[in-house]
Design a protein that fits this description.
This protein is α/β, with parallel strands linked by helices and 291 residues long. The chain has one domain: LigB-like (Protocatechuate 4,5-dioxygenase, Chain B, 3-Layer(aba) Sandwich). Helices cover 40% and strands 18% of the residues. The protein contains nine helices and twelve strands. Strands 2, 3, 4, 7, 8, 9, 10, 11 and 12 form a nine-stranded mixed beta sheet that branches.
């Protein structure tokens, strides 16, 4: 059986089982849910940086899902396409993924349904160097030990919206399974290191990145406007996984959702100040949203 090995264990999160579980628990303890949640959750947007920076934010989404749905059969994970040059979304459609917590199977039946819809192609090799979905998987394994996954690399193109609509229709037709979709994206990468400083270097630039640039993308997501999300990211560089986020919003819209709930919005500089007592000229934005 084909098995994908982890590529960022030991970098973005621990590579030993006990340490991995301990850090997941720490992230979940930090993830305090203060907002009223929807009666049902069908989708979420999660960040994908190292757990030190974005783990607690991602943990909010997983905690919210667990609170409403203790048992989830499959998580469809739409991932950012950092190094994927292909246009069609790429499905990892067979076998399993490995993490320090063990093996998690691919939902091959759901994968086949997505591929047969001709909105995505089978391409497991495209996932070899992409981390945006991998960092979510240990959370799923820990909180939903019987769940399967369906990873889909999703470039920031209009086809992402159609993919989400089709995935939503497939999910709606399955009355027996609880399927939740996740879109993995970070937000504005601001500062000299990222070559993006339209408001200068310093506090004012970082404030703009969070309060203006990130907020525009988040607002479009909360209003379920995937086309605007793609346009905003292309123009303003405020999401590295815009296709993944747009796809998950399209799923939510197809399944009858009319708005999203923002659980948290922060950035790496705020986390560095809080955890380490140091500041930076750079920052990457993170948001946790459920639908």
């Amino acid at each position: 059986m084909q098995k994908r090995k982890p590529i960022v264990a030991g970098q973005f999160y621990p590579d030993e089982r006990d340490e991995c579980i301990a850090e997941i628990m720490q992230c979940l303890e930090e993830a305090t849910l203060n907002q009223p949640l929807p009666d049902t959750i069908v989708a979420g947007i999660v960040p994908h940086a190292g757990w030190t920076f974005s783990g607690a934010t991602a943990g909010l989404v997983f905690s919210a899902i667990r609170q409403k749905h203790p048992k989830v059969d499959t998580f469809v994970i739409f991932g950012a396409a950092h190094g994927y040059l292909g246009q069609p979304p790429a499905v990892y459609d067979k076998g399993a993924w490995l993490t320090p917590l063990g093996e998690i199977p691919i939902d091959e039946e759901l994968a086949n349904a997505v591929i047969e819809s001709e909105t995505a192609i089978s391409d497991c090799e495209a996932h070899d160097s992409e981390h945006s979905m991998e960092v979510q998987v240990p959370f799923i394994q820990y909180l939903f030990p019987d769940a399967k996954i369906l990873p889909i690399l999703t470039p920031p193109a209009e086809q992402a919206i159609r993919l989400g609509e089709i995935a939503g229709s497939i999910i709606a037709s399955d009355e027996e399974s609880k399927i939740v979709t996740l879109g993995s994206t970070d937000l504005t990468h601001y500062g000299p290191r990222y070559g993006f400083t339209p408001m200068g270097v310093g506090k004012e630039g970082l404030k703009w990145a969070t309060e203006v640039n990130d907020k525009q993308f988040i607002d479009y997501a909360l209003k379920l406007q995937p086309d605007k999300m793609l346009e905003s990211a292309a123009e303003n560089y405020n999401a590295c996984g815009a296709g993944a986020a747009a796809a998950v919003v399209a799923v939510a819209k197809t399944l009858g959702k009319t708005k999203g709930v923002l659980l948290a919005h922060t950035n790496s500089n705020e986390i560095m100040i809080r955890k380490m007592g140091v500041t930076s000229r750079e920052a990457v934005g993170y948001a946790a949203i459920v639908f």
